[in-house]
Specification:
The complex is a heterotrimer of chains A (about 475), B (about 375) and C (about 450). With about 475 residues, chain A is an alpha+beta fold. Chain A has 18 helices and 18 strands. In chain A, the strands form 4 sheets. In chain A, strands 15-12-14-13-17-18-16 form a 7-stranded antiparallel sheet, with helices on both faces. A 5-stranded antiparallel sheet of chain A has the order 5-6-10-8-9. A 4-stranded mixed sheet of chain A has the order 1-2-4-3, with helices on one face. The longest helix of chain A has 18 residues. With about 375 residues, chain B is an alpha+beta fold. Chain B contains 13 helices and 17 strands. The longest helix of chain B has 14 residues. Chain B is globular, with a radius of gyration of 21 Å. Chain C is of the alpha/beta class. Chain C contains 24 helices and 9 strands. In chain C, strands 1-3-2-4-5 form a 5-stranded mixed sheet. In chain C, strands 7-6-8-9 form a 4-stranded parallel sheet, sandwiched between helices. In chain C, α22 links the parallel β8 and β9. Chain C starts with 12 loop residues before the first helix and ends in a 23-residue tail after the last helix. The chains are: A alpha+beta (about 475), B alpha+beta (about 375), C alpha/beta (about 450). Chains in contact: A-B, A-C. Chains A and B meet through β9, α8, α9, α11 and α17 of A and β7, α7, β9, α8 and α9 of B.
Chain lengths: ~475, ~375, ~450
């Protein structure tokens, strides 16, 4: 992946810049030794790597503001980083940048059950937000599969989703307010504990802006009372088409499950080998989960099963207990780890209209043959968010490039059928050069206009989201 | 100039109308929601009508912006679906003759009682097509449920009241209409007791989809919706717990009650300033108390568990308006004046105001789209 | 994850294994979430993923370890929480052990660091020497203010106030089963534990024989090798481990063994890994045999139909030792046994996090260890227990030094509930930890409970 040439003038001033940073942060919060910066050279997308000039770990909003002010004055690019779990390379450094990690900022600042919100520092992990309120039976709804480790900062930057967003929405639907520091070091509050904006919905545009408009240091999040219970039903079908039709029928019947997960044959096999979840060998598996009291769950599951039966499932297993639910989810939840055991993989994230699923899966199969790389599909079927996992060998020369080319073709296919490049991972570095396939130059110019307003010098998280040539033009224009 | 009216019939036409405009444009859909009279050539979007795509199995609707809201809702009803955010109709309370368009709903980010459970209009938005102040056609988002490709201009346009661009097409997530609904209702609670009850109800696992208090008549109302058996179960659980002693309204009478709350029916035909204040639910009783203490004549409807306070200020309008703005701002919320001799939109902090001005300058460099409408 | 090793590098079995492990890591970062040092420091470099990266870089480039790399690897507790968390099954333990060996062989530590490690490696594994050192520390404690090195002060602090007399139960002998013999097991009596706390082996022998085990104290056994193994001192650790293997194999070849029982889970993790440690050596087969026979005492007890005890009402906060829950994946057995015996068992919040003991970690990294101890004690005390139970002497010492609540080994409670004496740590007859002045006897509600 092409990255802008590092600014030699910045690199030559490294010592002074690091010294300045040390004046506003404790010694162990500024990392500039080459042996140490290497650990920050990538996130969970390891295909692209570049050690930063330095990494800083501020502990609060004031320190973040001080760091940004210095970097702004010095003209140094800043790459914000949450937990470094991005699959799109959202926290990939440039050689002349300072990585601004929020991992030391993980405090709970305020919990309010009456008004149903929690305010946290954004280095806090997604799951530990729920951890902070579960004693009162509350939870934070968005549940990206990396929720154990991913930070709220990254969730806000990427507008992360999760398996249960069919009912609860994604990050932007659960984010009430943020404290944000702009690149010049100004601290501002957007939103709060109330609903909806008084003016323009700046909070809405910050969420999902991939850390390019400001560094979000604190977030006010909607918390919800936990449902009384949740149980899934597992269904196996002999074709992807049938599984797709079943999903559509469930939704048309007016039942709104909290999650509908889909797995295709290659994934079923790999997961079964790894996790021994007792999945049937078939073409397509659906896991449909509903919530409520026991009786409510039984009511919904029986309606869903009745619909499934009209599609002649090869397997239909309603969970009746927590243990059975865990068994049904076991394979799906271990999907990424299981594939990781078999091969290196690249995880794509395109979204498609649910009705085009059979067509897209056929297309992926054809591409898989054409490129000679195996692909497995896990899929949030309720909302059309696909996760094709392309398997390759990172140690085999040329395989990564093959994998990238194939991934690009799959994503183009998603756009062609009316979908988009990324449903929840973000554009990052990975898909920036495909943006032209989804958007016209005018569409992109409008988005870049927002960047011009928030970060006129284009210093925050450079070379991401937009095709490199267009973002470079804006950077040059800014200088 | 006032006798000229632009009424484009398609997106290209709209783009042309804007690019060739030589002065300010006053953008309207059905004209039912605009809060501030802007001087300029009327640009009426009601000619941009028609459904582009409706896929009930994918819960997706793409429709042109000028399509009347009533038509959209009728279409969805044929498939037993609906707009979950329950858009209000303010034509009666504001005394406007027109009929609301879907584009107007989006431009105002107008949401009703179910907003606190199902999200606002902006949360149901999947994509937009719009024309900016230079006449450029821009799309953002799309028609799929999950989409984080690039910046979310969909949210930025929702609620921008036409000041960043004129919507030509909107794409929405729709939801199934549930089998049944019921409302638990009680008369006689004070506002603070009511907000306590509403917050307690929102803290239950029973998916409450409406939590409101109507000051006139001291009515506390809690709504549940879903499969019939669920509704029966949940209303019973609520009655056993937080809503002890509440009566039950079912079906049509429940629906009628919430339509009244949504559209501020108790205020229709009454004179006075109209305010909408958004704040933390538990701050709402304090606002009402402050108005009482100051002797400001008013009537109130609390929605969103208390998080949205609609006020009809009948007496002491100037002082009342100042008090509302100051009190709400001190609580960290904001208040919009729907009708009255006050600035419609709340002032912003200097940083936010600068960013807003910057965005307007970029999306509408000539300053011709509803100029000044949202400026405080 | 991509790796860059030359074919020559991969001919070295240690490097080959490291490559194998690195290839399974997808750099997802899940491990950061449960890593105790990352929780405290928030620095990628002090997380498993960061350490894996540092190790990868060092090994790929045959680089002489630098001070920074060593610092971050040294900060690893080897608690192995990351292995429980890892969705891809990355064998971090073997990787970090290999890195420690590499650092030991290729890095010259500052003299005081070397001296400290030399002393620890020559004292801790030898109960006699360790006991003398503890007595010496007891005498020296009043002078702690004069000690310049925080690590040396930590050593003084860790020494118990009372050093127990040598237990003759730890001598080579055979304890016959009470009643019909169900199993014949060898008890690994350990090294440091024998000097610090003799109650645990005593209780284990009573309990196992009561449950129908013939318990053998094998002649010639000693340290399992874990202490030096985690310092990267491979030749020392292999030498002691080899002696242990020989001692137990003599029993296997003699009257036979159903299990080698270990009541110090830190040792258990290492003994269960003997097969890997010796995989390329002549002792491979014997090592694999002993590794296959190694059982934590809770695993053996789970097979022995512990009688259901009457409800004691005693609240036990169970501290899961990392070596037990992460190293050996034994999570439920100890709790189930305690409940079966009639105790009310709870677990603290964040039970997956290490208490900071981690072998010699509390001596080498007193600051991080102290913070982890503070957090662990806080979450344990929040459960308002009458007694804290753990399955590892290291954790017991660490937690005991931070709380006034009695800390005992799970087997002491099980022994008590099935007819043995009240654990001395509860009765006040002897303290397992050492907090000077802590009123160990002040738990009247426990006296004679089961």
């Amino acid at each position: 992946m092409e990255m802008p040439a590092p600014n030699a003038a910045i690199l030559s001033r490294k010592t002074q810049i690091v010294e300045r940073l040390r004046t506003v942060l404790p010694a162990d919060a500024v990392i500039a030794d080459a042996a140490e910066t290497r650990a920050y050279e990538c996130d969970a997308l390891t295909a692209y790597r570049c050690p930063p000039m330095a990494a800083v770990l501020p502990a609060n909003t004031a320190e973040v503001a001080a760091v940004l002010k210095i970097c702004h004055e010095e003209g140094v690019p800043v790459v914000p980083r949450g937990s470094g779990t991005s699959l799109a390379g959202g926290a990939l450094p440039t050689a002349d940048c300072v990585i601004l990690g929020v991992s030391k900022m993980n405090a709970v600042l305020e919990t309010d059950y009456e008004n149903r919100f929690i305010r946290v520092q954004t280095g806090r992990t997604n799951l530990s937000v729920t951890g902070a309120v579960e004693e009162e039976d509350f939870f934070y709804a968005p549940d990206p599969s990396s929720q154990l480790a991913c930070a709220i900062a990254g969730n806000v930057a990427m507008n992360s989703g999760g398996a249960h967003c069919l009912k609860y929405g994604v990050t932007t639907n659960n984010l009430l307010g943020v404290t944000m520091v702009t690149m010049d070091g100004e601290v501002m509050e957007l939103g709060g504990a109330h609903l909806d904006a008084g003016g323009l919905d700046l909070l809405g545009v910050i969420c999902g802006s991939e850390g390019q408009l400001g560094v979000v240091t604190e977030a006010t999040l909607r918390i919800l009372r936990k449902p009384e219970g949740a149980r899934p039903v597992l269904m196996g079908f002999d074709s992807n088409e049938t599984a797709g039709a079943c999903v559509s029928d469930i939704i048309k019947a007016g039942i709104l499950p909290v999650a509908i997960e889909f797995m295709d044959r290659p994934i079923i096999e790999i997961c079964e080998n790894f996790a021994k979840a007792g999945y049937p060998q078939c073409e397509a598996l659906l896991i449909v989960e509903v919530e409520g009291s026991d009786a409510e769950i039984d009511d919904q599951l029986s309606r869903i099963s009745a619909i499934a039966r009209t599609h002649n499932p090869v397997e239909l297993r309603e969970s009746t207990s927590a243990a059975e639910s865990a068994a049904i989810w076991l394979g799906r939840k271990s999907a990424f780890g299981a594939v990781g055991q078999v091969a290196d993989y690249m995880c794509l994230d395109g979204t498609i209209p649910v009705s085009t699923l059979p067509r897209v899966l056929k297309g992926i199969e054809a591409l898989s043959e054409q490129y000679g790389l195996k692909v497995g599909n896990v899929f949030h079927a309720g909302d059309g968010n696909m996760h094709p996992l392309i398997m390759f060998d990172a140690n085999k020369p040329g395989d990564l490039e093959l994998c990238e080319a194939m991934g690009a073709d799959i994503l183009r296919l998603c756009v062609e059928v009316g979908g988009c490049l990324t449903g929840e991972h973000g554009v990052g570095i990975e898909k920036r050069d495909l943006m032209g396939d989804q958007y016209t130059p005018q569409d992109l110019a409008a988005q870049m206009a927002v960047k011009d307003v928030f970060d006129p010098a284009w210093l925050l998280n450079p070379a991401k989201v937009f095709p490199l040539d267009s973002s470079q033009q804006h950077r040059i224009a800014a200088e | 100039m006032a006798d000229v009216m632009l009424r484009p019939v398609d997106e290209a036409d709209l783009a042309h109308a804007i690019s060739s405009a030589d002065g300010p444009l006053r953008i309207t859909g059905g004209g039912t929601r605009t809060l501030v009279h802007v001087a300029g050539t009327p640009l009426d979007t009601s000619g941009l009508t028609g459904m582009e795509l409706y896929e009930p199995g994918a819960m997706t609707l793409v429709v042109r912006a000028g399509t009347p809201l009533a038509e959209v809702e009728a279409l969805l009803a044929t498939e037993n679906q609906r707009l979950a955010f329950e858009p209000p109709n303010f034509a009666p309370v504001l005394g406007r003759p027109g009929q609301s368009t879907i584009g107007g709903v989006v431009a105002a980010n107008a949401s009703g009682p179910r907003r606190l459970q199902a999200g606002a209009c902006r949360d149901a938005m999947l994509g937009v097509r719009f024309v900016d102040g230079a006449g450029t056609i821009i799309k953002n988002g799309g028609r799929v449920m999950k989409n984080v490709t690039g910046y979310d201009l969909v949210k930025l346009l929702s609620g921008s009241n036409g000041t960043l661009g004129v919507l030509s097409e909107v794409s929405l997530k729709v939801l199934p209409t549930p089998e049944a609904e019921a409302t638990l209702i009680f008369e006689g609670q004070t506002v603070s007791a009511a907000v306590d009850t509403l917050c307690d109800a929102m803290g239950t696992p029973f998916d409450v989809t409406g939590a409101a208090y109507v000051a006139a008549g001291k009515k506390t109302a809690i709504r549940v919706e879903g499969l019939s058996a669920s509704v029966t179960y949940r209303q019973a659980e609520l009655q056993r717990g937080v809503a002890a002693g509440f009566e039950v309204l079912e079906g049509a009478s429940s629906a009628a009650l919430w339509a009244d709350i949504r559209d501020l029916a108790p205020f229709v035909g009454r004179t006075g300033d109209l305010w909408r204040a958004s704040m933390k639910p538990t701050d709402a009783p304090g606002l009402i108390g402050a108005l009482d203490d100051a002797g400001i004549g008013h009537d109130a409807i609390l929605d969103w568990s208390g998080g949205l306070v609609s006020l009809l200020v009948t007496d002491g309008r100037r002082a009342g308006g100042e008090l509302i703005r100051a009190h709400v701002a001190a609580c960290g919320g904001h208040a919009t004046c729907l009708r009255g001799d006050h600035r419609a939109y709340p002032p912003q902090s200097p940083g936010v105001a600068r960013l807003e001005a910057g965005l307007r300058a970029r999306f509408d460099p000539r300053g011709i789209l509803n100029p000044g409408l949202m400026e405080a | 994850m991509q790796t860059n090793f030359s074919p020559e590098q991969l001919t070295d079995p240690g490097t080959a294994r490291a490559n194998e492990i690195l290839r399974t890591c997808v750099h997802c970062g899940f491990c950061t979430a449960t890593c105790p040092t990352y929780q405290i420091l928030g620095d990628e470099l002090d997380s498993p993923r960061g350490r894996i990266y540092l190790i990868k870089d060092m090994l790929e480039n045959n680089r002489t370890p630098d001070e920074k790399t060593v610092k971050h690897v040294d900060r690893c507790l080897s608690c192995l929480a990351c292995m429980t968390t890892c969705p891809s099954g990355v064998h971090y333990m073997h990787l970090v052990d290999h890195a420690r060996e590499y650092i030991n062989d290729n890095y010259k530590r500052p003299w005081h660091d070397r001296a400290l490690r030399w002393v620890l490696a020559r004292i801790l594994p030898y109960p006699g020497r360790f006991r003398l050192a503890l007595l010496g520390a007891k005498i020296a404690r009043p002078l702690r203010g004069l000690v310049p090195d925080a690590r040396l002060r930590a050593m003084l602090d860790m020494a118990p106030a009372q050093v127990p007399p040598v237990s003759r139960n730890d001598d080579a002998q055979v304890f016959p089963a009470k009643g019909p013999r169900k199993k014949r097991v060898a008890l690994m009596t350990g090294c440091a534990q024998r000097a610090l706390n003799t109650d645990i082996n005593d209780a284990t022998i009573r309990l196992l024989t009561r449950m129908g085990c013939e318990v053998v104290i094998a002649k010639g056994q000693g340290c399992c090798g874990a202490l030096t193994h985690h310092m990267g001192k491979t030749s020392e650790s292999h030498a002691t481990a080899a002696r242990n293997i020989a001692a137990f194999m003599a029993e296997v070849r003699g009257d036979g063994l159903d299990a080698v029982v270990i009541n110090t889970s830190g040792c258990g993790t290492t003994v269960k890994d003997y097969g890997h440690m010796f995989r390329n050596e002549p002792l491979a087969e014997d090592a694999a045999t002993i590794a296959g026979l190694a059982r934590d005492v809770s695993e053996v007890l789970a097979d022995l139909d512990l009688p259901k005890g009457r409800d004691t009402g005693i609240r036990v906060a169970y501290h899961a030792a990392c070596s037990l829950q992460h190293g050996q994946k034994i999570k439920d057995a100890p709790k189930a046994l305690l409940r079966q015996a009639g105790f009310k068992v709870s677990e603290p919040e964040n039970s997956h996090l290490c208490c900071g003991s981690a072998g010699t970690y509390n001596l080498m990294q007193p600051e991080l260890s102290g913070e982890l101890k503070r957090r662990k004690v806080e979450t344990l005390e929040a459960k308002r227990p009458d007694v804290i139970a753990a399955g590892n002497i290291g954790c017991m010492m660490q937690i005991g030094s931070g709380t006034g609540i009695p800390v005992v080994h799970s087997v002491e409670l099980l022994d008590w509930a099935t007819g043995g004496p009240m654990p001395p740590a509860i009765s006040g007859n002897r303290a397992p930890g050492h907090t000077p002045g802590a009123a160990k006897g002040d738990v009247p509600n426990l006296r004679g409970a089961p």
